[in-house]
Write a structure and sequence with these properties.
Layout: E1 10-11, E2 15-19, H1 25-39, H2 51-67, E3 71-77, E4 86-94, E5 99-106, H3 115-130, E6 135-141, H4 145-153, E7 157-168, E8 171-181, H5 182-195
Parallel strand pairs: 5-6
Antiparallel strand pairs: 1-2, 2-3, 3-4, 4-5, 6-8, 7-8
Length: 199
């Protein structure tokens, strides 16, 4: 299993994903503020969100990338590269077993356009083909139907439910665990290529 990936932008048919830069704070902050009502029910970091959260995330993201702990990407439309559409990340969770995880969110006024599935497919390619993962997982809060649809569309298999996995404020959320194996990725790769989500 590899521990580093290159820091050049990656492209899909409509999107560019690239590592965060410190100057991305304002664009990410604007996207989160515009989407906060939709993010808060599912993501712990959205509770009490302010600009400082965005600054810390990007600072920590740069450090995590250089250490090979996590690879966070800003999602941008190719025809509007200054506007932050959302985040997608891939990170190793087990070096010994070559397992990693992908996470994503899309700003509220860009949902329903397939951007989440497109960016996640490109992140899966990084996981399987650059990090040499054997298995990629998604963890999705129970009730987050939009994220479930992405997992289903991309061919992930739901493995089960983790009870009281994440605490948000006073609430505990169950999470479903979805996975894809390396051999399953390779059987789907040509379809993704034909759709233009990977090269």
């Amino acid at each position: 299993m590899a521990t580093h990936v290159h820091s050049q932008p990656r492209y899909t048919k409509r999107l560019m994903i690239r590592p965060f830069k410190r100057r991305d704070v304002a664009a990410m902050h604007e996207a989160v503020k515009a989407s906060i009502d939709d993010l808060q029910p599912w993501l712990p970091w959205a509770e009490g969100y302010d600009r400082g959260v965005a600054q810390r995330f990007i600072r920590e993201s740069v450090g995590a990338w250089s250490e090979g702990r996590a690879f966070d990407f800003t999602i941008r439309a190719i025809d509007d590269p200054n506007r932050h559409i959302g985040n997608v990340s891939v990170w190793p969770t087990s070096q010994q077993n070559s397992i990693g995880e992908v996470g994503y969110w899309i700003r509220s006024d860009e949902t329903g356009k397939g951007f989440g599935a497109e960016a996640t497919t490109r992140a899966m390619q990084i996981g399987f083909e650059e990090l040499d993962l054997h298995k990629v997982q998604l963890r999705i809060a129970v009730g987050n139907v939009a994220s479930d649809r992405i997992a289903e569309k991309l061919g992930f298999v739901m493995e089960g439910t983790l009870r009281d996995e994440v605490r948000i404020g006073a609430r505990w959320l169950d999470h479903t665990v979805w996975s894809m194996l390396e051999r399953e990725w390779w059987t789907q790769r040509d379809r993704h290529r034909a759709e233009g989500t990977i090269s």
